Amino acid sequence: MSHIHFQSGKRPVYQELSKEVNHFFKDKGITKTGDDRLYNKAIFIALLYVGSYFLIFALPGALHYMAWAFHGIATALVGFNIMHDGAHDSFSTSRKTNRLMAMTFNLVGSNRYYWAQKHNRNHHAFTNVDEADEDIDALGLFRMSPHQPHRPFHKYQHYYVWFLYLITSLFWFFALDFKAYGSQRIARRDYSHRMKLKDHIEFWASKAIYITLYILIPASILGAGPALLGFLLMHAFLGFLFAVVFQLAHVVDKAEFPRPDSRGLLLDEWAVHQMRTTVDFGTDSRFLTWALGGLNFQAEHHLFPRISHVHYADLHPLVEKKAAELGYELRSYPTMFAAIRGHYRHMKTMANPDTTSHLVSEPDACDCSNCSTGSEEFRTL
Length: 381
Description:
The protein is mainly α. The chain is 55% helix and 4% strand.
């Protein structure tokens, strides 16, 4: 397939939605980045993260396994609420602060640079598009898109997928980021630019620090066996939370899986593409919004990734109303459990070898001679 891209030229839907959002911030006299709500939450979560790490060594006997599990949850909270905003330059008006917050992804054992390429550049630009969005590429272990080949064992994927989610973060650490590091590409797209010396140093230094903090030190204090078991337990909680939360936004029965034409052209305007491939869930839940860092407002996040998640609840009715006026909808599930059922239904549908079209946008012919690669909203840190 040719280089995947959107049509160039005006983007009327995105411009209208942006105008509505910009009016909101202008009328309120506030910035689009984080505020005290985010900073106070970040401090609280950081304390949970550090405190739960030390509890691993403080709790007696088998109780330390509870600390490992809680530390996995705390690490997920860091990712949802601190790293994610930092990676999108929306945590603070300071670029240095954003970079520092984005580097907390290294605490998961992965790498900030890899996340910027995988998430910001590929996933946000070409959501649910095969060969570009690595989030729907499980190396054939399960089938998430109707355009992916079906294998006999996929017949049971809606059952076994929940167990594979337990190793998601381990898969990042031991496989995907090393794979991307070696090839300098995500899916079939090359990195936007080659890694600099400082990026290589950060990559290997982060790995060394992570192994020291989570394997060497625990093994020396707790013993190799208990340390390894606790490490796996921590990643089971962390990986499951990461996988499920991100899957609920895109790999569900309300989302579409657009396919470019033979030249790699995607039919829709970029903003329309985002609304068709991204689904909100549980937007009335203050707890979910707080704990997930606004990731239950995925449509708002995908349309405006450089706006902090603390503003999504206020933006939701404005964006939803304007989208409806333009003839589009923000797709949504009323609760997180409804979204989980939507994910299960989708995976069950994809388990059928005869399923080749499921809420899919197919491209029409285009005679444009000048096309673009996506939105300028997306930059790597």
